[in-house]
TrEMBL record:
Late embryogenesis abundant protein LEA-2 subgroup domain: residues covered: 82-173
Keywords: Membrane, Transmembrane, Transmembrane helix
Domain of life where this protein originates: Eukaryota
One Pfam family from the record: LEA_2
Name of the featured protein: Late embryogenesis abundant protein LEA-2 subgroup domain-containing protein
Membrane-traversing stretches: 20-44
Length: 202
């Protein structure tokens, strides 16, 4: 008796094959996702931008006393040179900011910090010119006393806020804040002391 072989496969076999392909696809996608996660949070772990104040110079300093009215005319211009290094494996893109000049916590001058981008491992140098706006100090009674004593106390505040994007998937928000306390000697017209503090956060 002659038997004919049947090469057609059962529906159950095809179903198992489809399920196997589906499982392999899911495992591959999960593996790729895990790999990207490891790269994003370990290999490309975000690092704070490193801000350094290189110098603070007194570009202009003019003062005149109005003794009868116990008031003072003051013109001060500071040149602040700072560098911002991006230690990340991806570019750091930051938005528009503002550098402030303060006299005893009162904002007396400001200058915009234009938006830009710092490449991976690159360092950006910034020169900022901060000038006291004369009308900001007219109503401050402490200025006259400080000028007479021979020392004026100012501080600078610079904030740079931006984002590091890794493979256009992982985006990390980074903020760098730099503040410096300065004392200006009135008679020699020099910066006597300066102390800078740095703060960063994610």
């Amino acid at each position: 008796m002659e038997h004919k072989s049947n090469n057609t496969q059962s529906p159950h076999f095809h179903k198992r094959k489809r399920n196997l392909c589906l499982i392999i696809t899911i495992v591959a996608v999960l593996g790729l996702g895990l790999l990207l996660l490891i790269l994003g949070f370990i290999v490309f772990k975000p690092k704070h931008p490193i801000t350094t104040i290189n110098s603070v110079n007194l570009n202009d300093f003019r003062v005149s006393l109005d003794i009868p009215n116990l008031s003072v005319y003051l013109n001060v211009t500071l040149n602040v040179n700072l560098s911002v290094k991006n230690p990340n494996k991806a570019g750091f893109k930051y938005g528009n900011g503002t550098a402030l000049l303060k006299y005893k916590e009162e904002v007396v001058g400001e200058v915009p910090v234009p938006a830009g981008r710092i490449g991976s491992g690159e360092t950006l140098d910034l020169d900022l010119m901060l000038t006291v706006l004369a009308d900001r100090l007219l109503s401050n009674s402490n200025v006259y006393a400080d000028v007479v004593s021979g020392t004026l106390f100012f501080s600078t505040y610079i904030k740079i806020s931006g984002r590091v994007s890794v493979m256009n998937i992982f985006k990390h928000h980074l903020v760098s804040i730099t503040s410096c306390d300065l004392s200006i000697n009135v008679l020699p017209q020099t910066i006597e002391n300066s102390e800078c503090k740095y703060k960063t956060r994610l």
